[in-house]
Amino acid sequence: MPPAPIPNLFAFGSNGSGQLGIGHDEDVSVPTPCVFTDHTPSPTQTQTQTRDPRVSRIAAGGNHTLVLLDDGRVYAAGMNGDGRCGVNSNSDSNSGSSSSFRFGRVAVVDEGESEGIMYDVFTALAATWEATVLVACSRSHEGGSGGGDVVFVLGTGMKGELGLGADKTQARAGKIRDFPPRGLRVVSAAAGMGHVVVVLSDGTVYGWGASRKGQLGGGLVGEKIVREPGLIEGVPFRVTDAVCGREFTVLCGDREKGEFVVLGSLGDKWGILVGTPATEDVKGYLKMDASWHGVYVHQKDMSVLAWGRNDRGQLPPADLRSAKEVAVGSEHALALLEDRSVVAFGWGEHGNCGPNTDAQGNIKGICNQVPLPEGDFEVIGVGAGCATSWIIAS
């Protein structure tokens, strides 16, 4: 069979562990083509894909990156010594490093099944600082232990981020048992630096990992660390999506009604809680996102409402025009504008906001035009991670 098509993806920013997937481990400040390897067709996919795949989601840990395509393939690059990039990711053997400098195809084997079932097609993913969360449809003969979906965790989680119990702080293909509950499916997954939340098909949401700042709801604060999936209670609406900051979580409900709630960030140093707007002010919002210390609302009129930390210019500057799409990283953001140009603002010390930052490495109070690569393509999306940035093209 011919190789499966790969996306047209460019990256720039922090790259000390090869997390940009551009073939080396040097930071770059201009969009650079990503390198994909091991793009063989999946044996679990029955239809041959003729069109170019689209990037559905980019999730970034501290030193690794995951790319989910719309056909279910996942590719990973970056630090991989503990297996957080998946068993099929290719390390750069000449470097003596445990990192993958190119995007390799992710696959996991469920060793708990007698058949040793391999999964290489996924429906959702998330990344903590040192771990990966992958969601797949069960392929066991029994339909799996949880209603048709299975959740795998890979990498390191010293504070419960793996959700595998108190004795498990590292895993290469850990399967969370009896989750999700029977009959329910995973709608979405999100993660902060040290916690994970998963939205289920009945509108409930579960979480695990660090909880002492209230990021998993008030009912779990006392536990400080939640080591297995726990129900987040008290949400006044049916949850449809979630995003995570460093120590807080935003749960979304009916966008037309403006439903959302912010959990966590106790102490509220950066005004995450006190700055929360009324639901009336965000009715009909398109999407919510979060940096480590800020919340961003992409409004129906294409404007961006945001609040939180702004000492490095992280919040949208006054000259941000109507944005077709917004991507929020740890302390910076990118916007795809109506004319298909891309701008960035915030902390850009590693080149993740493009060249020409100020003396402190910031793009503060203005939008910085990102120089796009030459070529016959159209920019269709943007992504952002931990001081990393992404241009998705077609």
UniProtKB/TrEMBL annotation:
Name one matching Pfam family.
RCC1
What keywords would UniProt list here? Repeat
Q: Which PROSITE patterns does the record cross-reference, listed alphabetically?
A: RCC1_2, RCC1_3
Task: List the signal peptide residues.
Answer: none
Ranges for the RCC repeats? 7-71, 149-202, 203-255, 302-339
Concerning Gene3D superfamilies, the annotation shows:
Regulator of chromosome condensation 1/beta-lactamase-inhibitor protein II
Q: Which domain of life is it from?
A: Eukaryota
This one is known as: Alpha-tubulin suppressor protein Aats1
Q: Tell me which species this is from.
A: Aspergillus versicolor CBS 583.65
* Lineage, uppermost ranks: Eukaryota, Fungi, Dikarya, Ascomycota, Pezizomycotina
